[in-house]
User: Which sequence fits this backbone?
């Protein structure tokens, strides 16, 4: 609880301080209730969350800062508090520097992470939260150098942050499938903070009339740990007697790019990346720890257009494992599609969205209809559903987690 | 010599009234071109306040800071949304071209997504931020997009206006016709009626205030009244500053992301 008081006191003192000394500090944010109910027999609540999100921004000539603390309170009295972002900016004639905890988003894809791999993901509630809540801030130094319509960006992340996975008691947790219950050994799961273990990313991008594009490269850690599998055999029976899983992060080298352009009434988008050093689970008996490293490609093509007042956006995504062998547990090609249909009514105060991820390999899907109503400016009601279909695959595995939810949000 | 002078005088007497008549009978096309080409400065920055007023008099306010600059064959505009709170820090950039065959390029920056997205400029019929103005109403519609006809003159609020009817070349256009009252010599559309596909009056635009700023006639306040839905949008410009030499770099994704 001392952490909470410390944060609360800090915010309070800051607010009081800024009231008298810095008129130009801008406060914004929101208070929100988010309640989700599973569509099962008992109608259990999947989430009851009250959130307070505050953004404090101040600029003085060529320098600025932003701090974004948040508090999430859950029905089981758990509190989740933290800083989504906290950074300093320095603006020069042709260069900007940003230092501190920040969300860095790259690429042209919507809801798919291909070159957008700098900020790790918070998957505590799978892919359901808003994207600014899924992406976690990273402590980084970001430098942007501008050459007309072109930008060169460099990012240095001195301390690695992994993807946040759901806890074992979460409805979003899925235990690995093995003949006997595995034991986890987390002794090698952390990447020691050091200069040597830093991550580096570079990007060259442009916004021009005919086309927008980004070219990127990165020397990073895989945000998702590889599960090293160590099996114990009972010498007497020669039967499998135990399985130990050792989550471990490995180095990844990435090169890729993205583009978007307009052709008539259509916006065409593409994004792709080549990953070197990704580990996959394998059944190859000669493989050490049941894993093997393979290079792979991840890319998409998308199109956005309007039919009357309805906006439609669709993407086709493919992951391809190169130098594939039959022992690999993953498919050689994993195909996914996304579809977004969106329309506003009543002077844009009522909005109907239907967003779907469709897993083409396993015929599974996540279908997300959503109705948003602005009762008044900055006060919003949202009613939605998350429908998982299929029995296996990335979305089908959550077939039991179909839910209805509503959110009430006050923005200021 | 005297005979020559007599011929010149006679010719002048004949030609002058004809010229005068021609000046007076300037075509609808020419009037609309003059409105289109009216100079408003090389660059401009201003605060824009939009008040959306429904039939019960309830108001919703949107505030925007906007910058525009003429780059010769193209015009760039960047808008930063300041309120309401849930759209704050959203920005929108538009590059429009003198070349009629070239569509506008448009981008939007959504702070929750933290990236600049290219969007299609196809949705010109869409209403801007829930107001009574479509994106097309807010832009400079090229004179060649319609056939214009001078249909009369009238004095409004002491201003002598010519009245021009414009019928779109594109039969699918959202308005079947528009009628504009244009102040003579100032080339400001003081009033404009918009007729829907059924030839019914849909909306009326009134210029409520214009002022000379830095030598240019600048429209500062307009009201669009949707007659059929009895909904109004009042659009007011304030803190207008013209020709300060806004940097070219102001119209970039860098600034969209940085915000105000």
Assistant:
């Amino acid at each position: 609880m001392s952490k909470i008081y410390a944060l609360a006191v800090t915010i309070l003192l800051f607010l009081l301080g800024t009231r008298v000394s810095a008129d130009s500090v801008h406060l914004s944010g929101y208070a929100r209730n988010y309640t989700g109910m599973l569509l099962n027999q008992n109608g259990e609540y999947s989430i009851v969350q009250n959130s307070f999100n505050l953004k404090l921004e101040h600029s003085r000539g060529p320098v600025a800062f932003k701090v974004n603390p948040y508090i999430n309170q859950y029905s089981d009295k758990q509190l989740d508090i933290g800083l989504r972002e906290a950074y300093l900016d320095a603006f020069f004639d042709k260069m900007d520097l940003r230092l501190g905890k920040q969300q860095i988003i790259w690429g042209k894809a919507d809801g798919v992470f291909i070159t957008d791999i700098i900020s790790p993901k918070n998957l505590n509630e799978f892919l359901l939260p808003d994207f600014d809540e899924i992406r976690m801030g990273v402590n980084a130094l970001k430098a942007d150098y501008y050459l007309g319509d072109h930008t060169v960006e460099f990012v240095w992340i001195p301390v690695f942050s992994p993807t946040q996975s759901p806890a074992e008691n979460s409805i979003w947790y899925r235990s690995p499938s093995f003949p006997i219950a595995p034991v986890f050994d987390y002794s090698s799961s952390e990447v020691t903070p050091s200069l040597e273990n830093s991550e580096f990313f570079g990007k060259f991008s442009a916004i021009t009339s005919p086309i927008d594009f980004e070219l990127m490269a990165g020397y990073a850690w895989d945000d998702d740990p590889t599960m090293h599998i160590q099996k114990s055999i009972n010498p007497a029976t020669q039967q499998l007697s135990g399985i130990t899983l050792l989550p471990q992060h490995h180095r990844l080298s990435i090169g890729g790019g993205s583009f978007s352009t307009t052709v008539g009434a259509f916006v065409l988008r593409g994004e792709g990346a080549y990953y070197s050093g990704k580990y996959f689970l394998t059944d190859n008996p000669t493989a050490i720890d049941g894993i093997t490293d393979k290079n792979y490609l991840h890319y998409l093509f998308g199109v956005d257009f309007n039919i009357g007042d309805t906006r439609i956006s669709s993407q086709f995504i493919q992951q391809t494992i190169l130098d594939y062998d039959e022992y690999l547990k993953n498919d050689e090609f994993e195909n996914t599609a996304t579809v977004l249909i969106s329309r506003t009514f009543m002077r844009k105060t009522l909005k109907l969205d239907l967003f779907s991820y469709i897993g083409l390999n396993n015929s599974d899907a996540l279908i997300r209809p959503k109705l948003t109503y602005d009762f008044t400016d900055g006060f919003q009601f949202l009613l939605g559903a998350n429908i998982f279909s299929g029995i296996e695959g990335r979305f089908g595995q959550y077939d039991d987690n179909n839910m209805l939810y509503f959110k009430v949000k006050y923005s200021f | 010599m005297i005979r020559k002078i007599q011929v010149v005088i006679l010719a002048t007497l004949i030609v002058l009234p004809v010229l005068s008549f021609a000046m007076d009978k300037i075509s609808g096309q020419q009037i609309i071109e003059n409105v289109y080409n009216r100079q408003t400065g090389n660059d401009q920055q201003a605060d824009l306040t939009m008040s959306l007023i429904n039939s019960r008099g309830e108001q919703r306010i949107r505030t925007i800071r906007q910058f525009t600059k003429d780059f010769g064959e193209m015009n760039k505009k960047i808008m930063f949304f300041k309120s309401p709170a849930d759209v704050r820090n959203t920005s929108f950039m538009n590059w429009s071209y003198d070349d009629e065959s070239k569509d506008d390029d448009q981008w939007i920056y959504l702070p929750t997504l933290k990236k600049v997205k290219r969007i299609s400029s196809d949705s010109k019929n869409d209403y801007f931020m829930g107001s009574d103005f479509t994106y097309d109403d807010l832009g400079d519609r090229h004179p060649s997009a319609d056939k214009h006809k001078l249909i009369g003159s009238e004095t409004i609020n002491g201003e002598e206006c010519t009245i021009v009817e414009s019928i779109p070349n594109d039969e699918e256009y959202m308005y079947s016709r528009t009628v504009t009252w244009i102040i003579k010599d100032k080339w400001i559309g003081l009033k404009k009626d918009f007729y829907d596909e059924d030839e019914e009056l849909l909306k009326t635009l009134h210029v409520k205030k214009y002022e000379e700023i830095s030598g240019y006639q600048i429209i500062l306040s307009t009201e669009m009244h949707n007659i059929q839905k009895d909904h109004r949008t009042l659009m007011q410009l304030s803190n207008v500053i013209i020709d300060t030499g806004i940097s070219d770099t102001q119209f970039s994704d860098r600034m969209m992301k940085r915000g105000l």
